[in-house]
């Protein structure tokens, strides 16, 4: 999905095309802001390529639900434009993890642009968890959800969870989805694979994105899946 990030999208597509992995048979790019079609390389794309052009901008959840509806593959990948793929075997390793029994989401280990580990595995977002993380500077106690920057989700799991909740315009939809996947009996599976994610962290700076983040947190905290999920955890893990 592109928010006017043409150069990032073109770079990622170039990496995927250069890998020529037979597991990647279809790529869908959603242009959330007005843009021209992306030019194919001289030899053409080594996969079926579809571009969706939104008349008006939509949220993360709505865009990916529409992309999923257009996807014909048994495994559906959500990947941000600001992701880089240094691991040549990433698709094989992700697919192997995603095909495990009752796996609902496989994901790689994410690194920051400088090579340091990214904090993409988190415990359920509650006010107490945020206090522990940001004020007490405590490490995460478990992995309840994974950043939606890079997922590989079996189509059956996406359907069983009902896709992403479009009431989240931006932020927390990945946390909510991971919790609903697990409530539906699926698991989150780390793959033996690495990708780089040059995240901007725009929601931590004053502005519209911070307001969207705050609104999404309120929705998450007043939304039944979070509390139903917490109710499934042993007392010692809450």
Rg, Å, rounded: 18 Å
User: What general form does the structure show?
Assistant: globular
Assembly type of the shown chains?
single chain
* N- to C-terminal distance: 34 Å
The total count of strands amounts to 9
Q: Helical content, roughly? A: 25-40%
Q: Low-confidence segments, ≥5 residues, pLDDT <50?
A: none
**Strand residue percentage:** 15-25%
The description of the largest β-sheet is:
3 strands, mixed
Architecture overview:
The chain is globular and about 60 Å long. A three-stranded mixed β-sheet has the order 4-9-5. It has a two-stranded parallel sheet with strand order 1-2. Strands 3-8 form a two-stranded antiparallel ribbon. Helix 6 crosses helix 8. The mean pLDDT is 93. The chain has 238 residues and is an alpha/beta fold. It is built from eight helices and nine strands.
Could you give the topology of this structure?
Blueprint: H1 6-19, E1 26-31, E2 48-53, H2 60-70, E3 75-79, E4 83-84, H3 90-98, E5 103-111, E6 121-122, H4 127-135, E7 145-146, E8 150-154, H5 155-161, H6 173-183, E9 187-197, H7 208-221, H8 224-232
Parallel strand pairs: 1-2, 5-9
Antiparallel strand pairs: 3-8, 4-9, 6-7
TL;DR?
With 238 residues, the protein is an alpha/beta fold. It has helices at 6-19, 60-70, 90-98, 127-135, 155-161, 173-183, 208-221, 224-232; strands at residues 26-31, 48-53, 75-79, 83-84, 103-111, 121-122, 145-146, 150-154, 187-197.
